Fold this protein.
Amino acid sequence: MSAAGARSPERDVVIVGAGVVGAAIARELSRFDLRCTLLEAGPDVGAGTSKANTALLHTGFDAKPGTLEARLVRRGHELLSSYAARVGIPVARIGAVLVAWDDEQLAAFPGIVERARANGYEAIREMGLDELRQREPHLGPGARGALVVPDEGIVCPFTTPLAYATEAVLAGCELRLRTPVPILVVSARHSEQEKVRLLDAGADDFLTKPFGPAELAARVRAPRPAARRRAVS
Ligand SMILES: Cc1cc2nc3c(=O)[nH]c(=O)nc-3n(C[C@H](O)[C@H](O)[C@H](O)COP(=O)(O)OP(=O)(O)OC[C@H]3O[C@@H](n4cnc5c(N)ncnc54)[C@H](O)[C@@H]3O)c2cc1C
């Protein structure tokens, strides 16, 4: 994808990172009357973790009931399923099969089914060994039982962030690629160990409280070594 959009120093929102999350935020915000910029350190949208995941479109059947994760994964499954069908993101509803290979795994099945139902997911069911062998003829010997989750699927991890970013750019969001944003940590923690940990994790600078606005502005203006900027991408 190439960088596009109206270039202007005046921005209402700047989103750092054009992975699936940043691109989705950019798409959502571009529906409003906002001057929006999406910045990405890498050479393209979705070039980080988003392009290299397992591609599972989860139902959230096994999330801990009542948690934010359970609610969001379920809602995400609904939203992404309908969005993918609308814009042509490849999805394959292949289902998931959980195989028990010993007594302990078999004994866990009722709890997994109960958890799925508590999450509002009713389609999970036990699969007999004959059906399992028919469905998965290349499975090794020794399976003790299986559960099937028909609505789990795979979704193209490349197309998803690209679709979000394309819609955002078409709606006027500016996209800047190869634009690493320096990471300045502002913290009340001041131990050497903490500073070293964060600098080693990729921070460009570390500022401890108390500090004045002039120092903060000077740190933001300070030039960054190119090697560290490249490391971010
Ligand atoms: C091995 C693995 C398997 C997974 N499998 C699945 C799965 O099957 N299903 C599923 O739903 N989820 C899965 N996930 C999780 C999923 O991939 C992540 O939750 C998702 O990709 C996170 O998206 P993101 O946009 O937050 O991060 P990223 O895709 O990492 O995007 C962040 C972007 O920010 C950019 N960036 C970082 N720092 C800066 C900076 N300073 N300036 C400018 N840009 C910057 C990076 O270059 C990157 O492109 C998996 C994760 C892993 C690691």
Q: What stands out?
A: The first helix runs from residue 20 to 29.
